[in-house]
């Protein structure tokens, strides 16, 4: 197992709350992390039909089987169970009784929110970060990272990325989607997922997306919600401060794992990624999600946005800390040129209060400190986020 940044936070929250709920994509490492962090607790997989039937038909008897608590994996498979957990944990009062995991964030959060409000810590685990790989002495070139992605199983077992990612989509569609909604034409839904990959790093236009698939705007919205619920796609919201009269209000579409986006685009080797017309978008996806991992794996919520005005001026990433905002430009080139800074200069010129720091992330190999910003390598996004945090204190 590659050590995870979230483990320390997971243990800490378990010492403070009677329940910890950990959600994240399938195969992001939730089960492995929980079993490693709480090896003394019984592990219960609610995907098993007989165990799930026991938990559904006799929830009180099921929970009584684990008087000292347990790890309950894939809690969304038994949506009624959190309601029966509440009196159990209230009677005990002890911290760290139950560890719940789930792969569907909206459903899990709804059930947990209704039944265990104030009694559970909520954490998210995404696939491996570049820093976690680096700490494990796994260092890869940019195009290899874009192709391979970050699912732990690829690295732990040494599997071929294309096989893992192909199986992932099949499993997700066959297993999770059919649990959530009845889709008559699964092939049409799979086409929808692939077309989402074709729009990675772009403004979301549901009308256009639905038209290209051959479904209504309403269906496209419903399907996109499913992809969000299953931690497949992430929508980066536009910054909400009105610094220009005409600002873009649509979110931008990204994938939680860039390797999955590359696979959906048909990339089979690094050469395909290197020369793909969407390579820049994939690189942007990688950096955005690395910043998101930095937040989630420290038990924090997203503070990430982007900015674009009606004239096409844009900053790819804004990191907000209270009243402070740090603009970050993302460029997939390995050589810096003056055009890289245009968006940053336009944005900061509109602010009444200048940012404490600005940054550029690129695909080159050198870090640079300039008078008004810092240039970071893609491998150093976690370091960049730490620098932004420290300057905002």
Average of per-residue pLDDT values: 92
* Oligomeric category: single chain
- Tally the beta strands: 13
Class from secondary-structure proportions: alpha/beta
Helix content: 40-55%
Strand order of the largest sheet: 8-9-10-11-13-12
What radius of gyration results from the CA coordinates? 22 Å
List the uncertain runs: none
Tell me the major beta sheet: 6 strands, mixed
Give the count of helical stretches. 18
Strand content: 15-25%
Could you give the distance between the termini?
Answer: 34 Å
Give a quick set of tags describing it.
393 residues; alpha/beta; globular; five-stranded parallel β-sheet; six-stranded mixed β-sheet
Description:
It is globular and about 65 Å long. It has helices spanning 6-14, 30-37, 49-57, 59-64, 81-92, 105-115, 130-135, 142-148, 152-157, 161-180, 186-197, 206-213, 217-229, 258-264, 270-274, 279-296, 342-350, 381-391; strands at residues 19-23, 43-45, 70-73, 98-102, 120-124, 233-236, 252-255, 304-308, 314-321, 324-330, 359-362, 368-369, 374-377. The model has no long low-confidence stretch (mean pLDDT 92). It has 393 residues and is of the alpha/beta class. 45% of the residues are buried.
Could you give the topology of this structure?
Elements: H1 6-14, E1 19-23, H2 30-37, E2 43-45, H3 49-57, H4 59-64, E3 70-73, H5 81-92, E4 98-102, H6 105-115, E5 120-124, H7 130-135, H8 142-148, H9 152-157, H10 161-180, H11 186-197, H12 206-213, H13 217-229, E6 233-236, E7 252-255, H14 258-264, H15 270-274, H16 279-296, E8 304-308, E9 314-321, E10 324-330, H17 342-350, E11 359-362, E12 368-369, E13 374-377, H18 381-391
Parallel strand pairs: 1-4, 1-5, 2-3, 3-4, 10-11, 11-13
Antiparallel strand pairs: 6-7, 8-9, 9-10, 12-13
Helix pairs in contact: 5-6, 8-14, 11-12, 12-13
């Amino acid at each position: 197992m590659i050590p995870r940044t979230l483990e320390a936070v997971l243990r800490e929250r378990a010492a403070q709350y009677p329940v910890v709920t950990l959600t994240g994509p399938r195969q992001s490492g939730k089960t492995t992390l929980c079993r490693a962090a709480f090896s003394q607790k019984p592990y219960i997989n609610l995907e098993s039909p007989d165990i799930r039937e026991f938990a559904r038909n006799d929830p009180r008897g099921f929970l009584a089987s684990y008087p000292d608590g347990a790890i309950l994996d894939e809690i969304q498979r038994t949506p009624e169970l959190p309601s029966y957990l509440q009196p159990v944990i209230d009677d005990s009062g002890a911290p760290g009784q139950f560890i719940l995991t789930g792969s569907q964030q909206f459903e899990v959060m709804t059930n947990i929110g209704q039944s265990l409000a104030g009694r559970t810590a909520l954490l998210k685990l995404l696939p491996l970060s570049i820093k976690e790989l680096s700490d494990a002495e796994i260092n890869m070139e940019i195009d290899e990272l874009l192709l391979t992605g970050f699912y732990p199983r690829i690295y732990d077992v040494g599997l071929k990325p294309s096989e893992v990612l192909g199986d992932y989509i099949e499993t997700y569609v066959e297993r999770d989607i059919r649990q959530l909604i009845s889709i008559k034409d699964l092939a049409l839904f799979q086409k929808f997922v692939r077309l989402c990959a074709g729009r990675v790093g772009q403004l979301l236009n549901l009308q256009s997306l639905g038209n290209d698939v051959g479904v209504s705007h309403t269906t496209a919205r419903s399907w996109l919600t499913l992809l969000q619920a299953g931690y497949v796609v992430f929508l980066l919201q536009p910054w909400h401060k009105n610094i220009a009269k005409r600002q873009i209000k649509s979110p931008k579409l990204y994938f939680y794992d860039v390797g999955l986006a590359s696979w959906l685009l048909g990339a089979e080797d690094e050469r395909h990624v290197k020369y793909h017309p969407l390579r820049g978008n994939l690189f942007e996806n990688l950096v955005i999600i690395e910043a998101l991992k930095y937040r989630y794996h420290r038990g924090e919520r997203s503070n990430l946005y982007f900015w674009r005005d009606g004239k096409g001026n844009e900053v790819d990433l804004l990191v907000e800390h209270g009243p402070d905002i740090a603009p970050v430009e993302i460029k997939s080139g390995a050589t810096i040129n003056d055009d890289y800074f245009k968006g940053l200069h336009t944005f900061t010129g509109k602010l009444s209060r200048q940012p404490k720091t600005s940054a550029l992330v690129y695909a080159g190999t050198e870090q640079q400190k300039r008078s008004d910003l810092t240039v970071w390598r893609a491998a150093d996004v976690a370091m960049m986020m730490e620098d932004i945090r420290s300057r905002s204190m």
